[in-house]
Amino acid sequence: MIAFGKYVAYALYRLPFRDEVHIVCQHSQKGAVCMAPELVDEDCRAFVMLPFDGRAHPVVRVRPDDEMTIKTAMLKIAGGGRISEVEENEGTYREVFERFHCVIPSQFEKLVLSRSVSARYDGCPMDAFLRACDAYPRTMVYLCYTRETGYWIGSTPEILLAGSKSHYCTVALAGTMLTDGDWSDKNRREQSLVADYVRDVITPLSRVVEEAGPYTSRAGNLYHLKTEFHFSPKPSVTVIDFVNRLNPTPAVCGLPKDAAKAFIAEHEGYDRSYYSGVVGMLDVHGETNLYVNLRCCHLHDQGDHYGCMLYAGGGILPESTPETEFQETEEKLKTICSVLNPTSSN
Predict the structure, then answer these.
(1) CB neighbours (10 Å) of residue 145?
(2) Does the global pTM surpass 0.90?
(3) Distance CA 280, CA 181 (A)
(4) Within 10 A of 193 (CB to CB), how many other CB atoms are there?
(5) CATH 3.60.120.10 matches 4-340
(6) Is the CB of residue 144 less than 8 Å from the CB of residue 297?
């Protein structure tokens, strides 16, 4: 096993439908202890985490002082895991839902309302990461640790930007169902708003844009509507230009985007931190694999256990109800709960 304790920061990630884990480790304090105010380095190559709100948290950059690729089967789970002392907040969610719902559609076409759930985790973060790799082959699974942020673990289905040189792709992923079937008008309209936004962002920055979808895509125990965009950037456009303009997408924020982001910061009632931001490998001159940070949790060391914060959200439209939207967040929370608490159905 790799001696991760000697590093100030490290990240492991497994791309969808792959059987190897990429490991990136930083052993020196150089680079402002892995933290930076924004993505400004045009030569950046690092595993990054971007927050939902850049005014509240810095960008995390784990520089690859050491890196390696290992077959997933070579990394063994050491033991079990258990979450307990879960604090539910359905009453609070309903209050915030009404706050969001009453300004749609008068001020916003769409808003995304999320919630956090706190718990105690007795287990190993690495084991949770490996269980996620085994359970969710269709998603990007990651673990990122820095001394400043603690552990972040996630299993996200949503590409923000992936590719290299003249070919990149992104997706519009929105709408949620528990089983495969016919999509409601609400889900189709929610996904269409995201697709329209992505199309409007990438088209003026690209020489060629090709589009496929929307089609049904499975992620863990849920189904979503997805549209794929494949494009070739104009010569003067950088990877960072796309990242800065796409993030955050309406899939995690709302429309109009800037106003929605400000409304969320003021009225959602908690700090999203790196949830619904961006996570993955950024390589300005090579292969980039960046995802929206969904189905994730934050673990902070409490000595004999980890404090755990879990996150989930959903898009709010005029026909949304607090009951259906809260249940959607419950189903999304099961993705990460199942790898933290493998003996439980939740």
Answers:
(1) 23
(2) yes
(3) 31
(4) 20
(5) yes
(6) no
Residue pointed to by tokens 């979503």:
224
Each residue's pLDDT, cut to its tens digit, for the chain (346 residues) gives 678 888 889 999 999 999 999 999 998 766 434 556 567 666 689 999 999 988 888 899 999 999 999 999 888 887 778 998 888 777 899 999 999 999 999 999 999 999 999 999 999 999 999 999 999 999 999 999 998 899 999 999 999 999 998 999 999 999 999 888 899 999 999 999 999 999 999 999 999 999 999 999 998 889 999 999 999 999 999 999 999 999 999 999 999 999 999 999 999 999 999 999 999 999 988 999 999 999 999 999 999 999 999 999 999 999 999 999 999 999 999 999 999 988 754 4
Burial of 54 from C-beta contacts in 10 A (0-12 / 13-18 / 19+):
middle
Q: What are phi and psi of 62, to 5 degrees?
A: -100, 105
Q: Which residues of 96-130 are buried (b: 16+ CB within 10 A; e: fewer)?
A: bbebbbebbeeebbbbbbbbbbebbbbbebbbbbb
